[in-house]
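Protein in question kept in full:
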Amino acid sequence: MTEDETVRVSIEIAADPRTTFDVFTQDVDAWWGRGPRFRFVPPYRGTLEFEPFKGGRFLHRHDRDPSKDFVIGTISAWAPGERLTFEWRQRTFRPDQTTHVEIVFEPSPLGTRVTLTHSGWDQIEQTNVVRHGLTGRAFVMKHGENWADLLRTYKVFSETKYMAKGEQQ
């Protein structure tokens, strides 16, 4: 029996669920981290974007050469203000390998509770570079830290944008 390597991270955002969903999907390139830790295509610039529909793609577009664009995954659920799910691939995965990301946007007393679950790591061999030599709980903690860092940046960006939107009304 293999140890569960599912990563779960949650954060509360002071904005309504639809706004948090829109910021996550429409502004992904603005809040997502830069550099080799968070980008997929060397030299780790370019832009990230979601094609906004079920069956659309989550893409890292190369900044100079479209032939080097990387499809991170295909969107399997697109429910604005509620849920987003997509496949997740790294450049080091074999063609038949994917993992799965689900983000749930739920109303909360603060505004929205965003819960991200990243599963399917049992399909990725222990020697894959994406694991940084880690397995089991150590891998979950390391990968969870990466997602938590991204979600903290997303929170600040979302709340700043939401406050600015409220001031314009």
